[in-house]
């Protein structure tokens, strides 16, 4: 038997409850990975902007980001000096909280924190 | 007629199943129930007077009689944490404690019940420090009332075993999922040899079967869930209300378990037990092994022609309010006898406040009083309970209002003095 | 035996007869096995189909300190969970305990079972000499001697149980022997030695009723 079985479902309530009856038992969260649904971008007052030309694809920003908000994407990029990278780093602006750790860690100052305006 | 016959036949069969009568202490009975329930995880920090439960379970495991994980913990807080975590993985989990040990695990008591983990605990009741005292009273158990646990009190060694067997079934029932504590009076049950008819593993596992893992939410790497989340003001209250409802509804399952236990093994259990209540004019409400003494007092009073009766609360939480009200409806006066003090309370005996409130909201008011005795293992003698009944009789006849708890047996103290205050 | 007849106690193996409640108090010193004696007696009664409560005077047990233990036996379930203040039988494991203490509350019609070299008559005489009234029946046995002979240590509880049974017949010697044997089943040599102790003490016990 597993969580997918019917007998189990009575305890799970609704993913977005409206009343006490809809709430999962003991306030458990039986919806793995749901943190992605929480958009934390509103916490941000400054945002990181990556200069793709300066970026050396060292992956340090991706490693240090406490929120997993640096994305490594399969996007080819040719720098102005003619160097070709198979990947690029992008910021997940839905979840980036603007802490600036990526900018601080970047060894080539390719990330700039710019004031957020919405 | 045929029904009775059938019942008799049933009983006969049952006797054959359960005829093994042994002599055992309450602690041994508790350990035996744990063994027969085939517990998966036990984490117990030894404390007097519960030590033999821990010892015996460890011995069962060492001898290969019980296939369980015994977790050696450094204190009661960890003991309960460990069994709560074990239960969260789907294990049948057990712990036991007493007195200061229960206080040390106090914050985890709330977590066990609010995480809805069906752990079972044996509590050898014992007084709280200071002064240091290892003997019996109910201060530790009564401190647990607000923690959201189901609480079963045992009157004798047989009930310790039977209550624990039922506790596993109740706690793990899909309609309940709450922790259950079973008390045994420190020393008075934990260390007293009495007759015991254990059921054996086969019977216990048929009465309280282990359910397939995953019938309730458990920690499973293949389907992760988060347990122990943050409950913001937006949703905390709703989680609490779910607990209110769960505890209320557990009553039905407790009753059902007690009834079926009676059908199968000849010893029926209700939420309360009434003793000589059919025509009783004076009734005392008590619980635990103290109820035995009250029964003995009732026997003596009946010989004197006084219509005495008594109500034993087997279940303290959820409080069997309808049953108690019904039982007290027709008596002329009632009182409580308890071994704990609610310091500074409106009435310093906590059982009384609850029952009086339950009656009052139903518009039932009659002569009533509350008695405290037996603190820290002070012996209560049957003759003293007879005196209490006579005090209640005097209150009934005079119609005077007793506004404060009678502290019976305090050296140099006349309990009537408090009434003047 | 005479005491048993006086109380109307039937031999424990006779079925169907009712027995009045019997309350027994054990006096010993920590380490002599008074608690084990009370428990074993209770267990034997339970195995014979009776109801029993057996419990020590709970406290911080220490070797050498005076110890009390109680056994209450009845045909019916027992509700009285109070200490025994007026016992029918007092069993004294250690003759160095003051009689003013162990005789306290013992019923006049009761039985005193004591570990001593003195005969029951001499015990009664000695008690009277101290201004105390001996109970109706007195039984004595040199339990220390018997215990040291077979066990090699003055652990007299099993000898005193045998003496108690000879004088009172509250349970049968066979049942108590079985209980004691099972208790020591992991150590057969000690179990066997105790069987010898019980047989010899049973033989040696003298009972006198006034």
The fold-level CATH name of chain C is Pyruvate-ferredoxin Oxidoreductase, domain 3
Q: Radius of gyration of chain A from the CA trace?
A: 20 Å
What percent of the residues of chain C sit in helical stretches (DSSP H or I)?
25-40%
Strand content of chain C: 15-25%
Q: Distance N terminus to C terminus of chain A? A: 48 Å
CATH structural fold name of the largest domain in chain A:
Alpha-Beta Plaits
Overall structural class of chain A, as computed from helix and strand content, comes to alpha+beta
What is the CATH architecture annotation of the largest domain in chain A?
A: 2-Layer Sandwich
**Uncertain spans of chain A:** none
Q: Give me the oligomer status.
A: heterotrimer
Q: Tell me, what's the shape of chain C? A: globular
Give the spatial strand order of the biggest sheet of chain C: 2-3-1-4-5-6-7
**CATH first level of the largest domain in chain A:** Alpha Beta
Quick synopsis:
Chain B has 15 helices and 15 strands.
Task: Describe this entry's structure for a reader.
The complex is a heterotrimer of chains A (118), B (421) and C (210). With 118 residues, chain A is an alpha+beta fold. Chain A folds into two domains: 6-32, no CATH class; 41-115, Alpha-Beta Plaits, CATH 3.30.70.20. Chain A is built from three helices and six strands, in the order αβαββββαβ. Chain A has helices at residues 6-9, 60-64, 101-105, and strands at residues 46-50, 70-73, 77-78, 84-85, 88-91, 111-115. Chain A is elongated. By secondary structure, chain B is α/β, with parallel strands linked by helices. Chain B has two domains: 19-265, Rossmann fold, CATH 3.40.50.970; 272-419, Rossmann fold (3-Layer(aba) Sandwich). In chain B, 43% of the residues lie in helices and 15% in strands. Chain B contains 15 helices and 15 strands. In chain B, α8 (157-172) crosses α10. Chain C is α/β, with parallel strands linked by helices and 210 residues long. In chain C, α3 links the parallel β4 and β5 (111-115). In chain C, α6 crosses α8. Chain C is globular, with a radius of gyration of 16 Å. The A-B interface holds A 1-5, 7-8, 10-12, 17, 19-20, 23-30, 32 and B 114-116, 174, 177, 212-217, 220, 222-227, 229, 231, 235-236, 238-239, 241-242.
